[in-house]
Amino acid sequence: MRTNSQGQRVCAPSCNSNQYLSEKNGEFFCFDCHPQCSGCTGPANTQCSHCRNVNNTFTSENECIAACPFGSYSDDNNKCRACDPQCSGCSGPSSSNCSVCSEESITQTNGESVCVPSCPLWQIYDLSSSSCALTNDAQLAVIVVASVTGGVLLVLACLLACCCIFCFRKKQKLNADDGIELTGGVAFKRGSYLTNKMSSL
């Protein structure tokens, strides 16, 4: 017995595993699940509790489908999951599982294909293959030398700036200790200008 929408207690049939119970005109009936479902809570293919085909997968809306949509993959629980942001299509969760890189990514080949946002330092972008390519020894040497030189120049520039600041502050301190003031770009020792002025009168 079940209570219908009118508040009446009525007999309800026992549905099999591939049916769901629903009320119609105050009475309860068993209705078949969607053909993709094996067990369901309603008529739609998004109301499956199990998939009819064991090889089918669930989307995030519990819809049984033969394969996950492009941009997603099937996990160990037959659930469709979104690919890594670097991938446009994939077979797993990481950027090394990409079947196609996204438009913002490029392919790095180093024993395996991985989608990356930019090529690493030791590789160059190959226009012909639209991927990162290993550099030869000469190219690698140029890259290393340029990187080291740039780093050394940056350190030297920082040291030079620090030395200039240190010397300037030291000069200011010495002038202050000697009682020298800068007035209109001319250095005067405190008290000497007034003494000289009085002597000339």
TrEMBL record:
Residues 6-98 form the Growth factor receptor domain. Gene3D superfamilies: Hormone Receptor, Insulin-like Growth Factor Receptor 1, Chain A, domain 2 (2.10.220.10). The chain crosses the membrane at residues 140-168. SUPFAM superfamilies: Growth factor receptor domain (SSF57184). The keyword NADP does not apply. SMART domains: FU. Keywords: Glycoprotein, Membrane, Transmembrane, Transmembrane helix. This is Growth factor receptor domain-containing protein. The lineage of its organism: Eukaryota, Metazoa, Porifera, Demospongiae, Heteroscleromorpha.
